[in-house]
Specification:
alpha+beta, elongated, six-stranded mixed β-sheet, single chain, 27% strand, 5 helices
Length: 184
């Protein structure tokens, strides 16, 4: 009879130890997760989520993400969120350009309103990974995006695209969005 009580006590101790271990795991998991993930995944996820949140217009800044050498971010990567590649213009904040070196971001584009393969892209060519955020500004049309661009054109670089309506069309693609990479 004495043996049974001892065995029951051991099982009870084991159960208490398991509950304590699970409780400690729940406390440590968010801390360790925050250290290892560094944001929502990558540029595509962070920018895509932000684009989806401002698709009806407005501006919002993405969560932090890390970009590595030779990583391109193209407007055509965001069709999953319901955007046409012609409705997104990739840009870089001039302050970020100055901090990383002017040659660290290479622009490429195929811009034609009537060409379904039109896109804009920014490729990071720096040697070290950097943490960035993206400010996303969406306007109803290319015409209204031109007005916004005129207000902020001194602070950003959009490569070969001279005005958003050149890429989005005046009213063809809605919304017309600027995705501006900036320091975290």
């Amino acid at each position: 009879m004495l043996n049974n009580r001892g065995q029951a006590f051991s099982v009870f101790e084991l159960m208490i130890a398991a509950i304590v271990a699970v409780a400690i795991l729940f406390v440590l998991l968010p801390i360790l997760g925050g250290i290892t993930t560094g944001g929502v995944g990558g540029p595509r996820d962070a920018i895509g989520n932000t684009l989806a949140s401002v698709s009806s217009g407005g501006s919002f800044t993405s969560q932090e993400f890390t970009i590595t050498k030779n990583t391109p971010i193209t407007s055509s990567q965001f069709t999953k969120e319901g955007f046409d590649s012609r409705s997104i213009i990739m840009a870089v904040d001039n302050e970020l350009d100055a901090q990383t070196g002017l040659s660290s971001f290479v622009f490429s584009s195929a811009v034609a309103v009537n060409d379904p393969l039109s896109y804009t892209a920014v490729t990071y060519t720096g040697n070290q990974s950097i943490s960035l955020k993206a400010k996303v500004i969406c306007e109803a049309t290319g015409n209204s995006a031109d007005v916004t661009f005129d207000l902020i054109s001194e602070t950003i670089n959009i490569g070969d695209v001279t005005n958003p309506s050149e890429h989005c069309g005046t009213t063809e693609f809605s919304p017309c969005c600027l995705v501006i990479l900036e320091r975290k």
